[in-house]
Amino acid sequence: MLRLHPYTYHRPATVEEAVALLAEHAGDVMPIAGGTDLVPNMKHKLFTPGHLVSLRGIEAMRGVVEDAAGYTIGAATSLDAVAGHPAIAVGLPSLARACSLVSGPQLRRMGTLGGNVCLDTRCTYYNQTHFWRQSLGYCLKKDGTACHVVKGGTRCVAAHSADAATALLPLEAELRIAGPEGERTLPIGRFFTSDGVWNRRMEPGELLVSLHVPRLPAGSRHSYQKLRARGSIDFPMLNLAVRADLAPDGEVEGLQMAVSAMGSYPRKLGKLEPIAIGKHLTPSVVEELAAQAFRQSHPLQNMPVDSEWRRAMVPVLVRRALAEITA
Predict the structure, then answer these.
(1) pLDDT value at residue 300
(2) What SS3 class is residue 251?
(3) Distance of CA 142 to CAs 146, 182, 193, 304, Å?
(4) Would you say the pTM of this structure is higher than 0.90?
């Protein structure tokens, strides 16, 4: 049986109290919302904080607000609540779908949108029990000096394996982050880094408080596609989010695609708009876009699935997403 280590549990009522507790116990503390990823990682001794600061009692971090400017979603709002919210389902269907495909229903009711955006990177050689990792000699991400994915690698390449962040990238979401120095906002496109150990531009004493998605053009269409071994529970082996801004006649005015689960952060694909702008999404245009996405996708062997098969599935997901958008 995997047991949790002893720790002190704090339950603040405000963001300010939570930030103060993180500062007071700096170096030996972590925030916890749903805990669906953190608790298993603690059982595996990947994290052993002496203090946990719960975010579940902070009402200011929960709920969805729609106004003329767009949608503001509290970071502690459950994935299930986001997926089932009528305004999100209509205005941000790719985000609703991404949240609905995270794990299983029990974990979606506990897991939060902010927790999914800040999900720790994953790797075959990292997400194991302490005994397993000790037998191997550990790895760059935790306690070791060697990368078992890239021979001789000096930088962790554990994979970003969250769903919501990929969907939020083409939607141009902004993140509101609170810390000891006050609050700041950061576009989600600048939030992530390529460091698999800590892949986000957020200090350990800061909290993701809310996310804002601006109101999108009337002709904006979205799709989210996920590749996984089973139809539920599993983390993505690959995911893809597409946003196409279409004129009334269906001509493409803007196109964005984001992929993840192949590297340490979700990223937008480039050189797509020259293929599609001013055109309709005809079969030939779709095939050009699928081929361009394939050329830019190079998954690493950081999960127990053939990386070449995952890459071959990129154009398949592109075709599915664009078929959904033009349906």
Answers:
(1) 87
(2) coil
(3) 10, 31, 18, 19
(4) yes
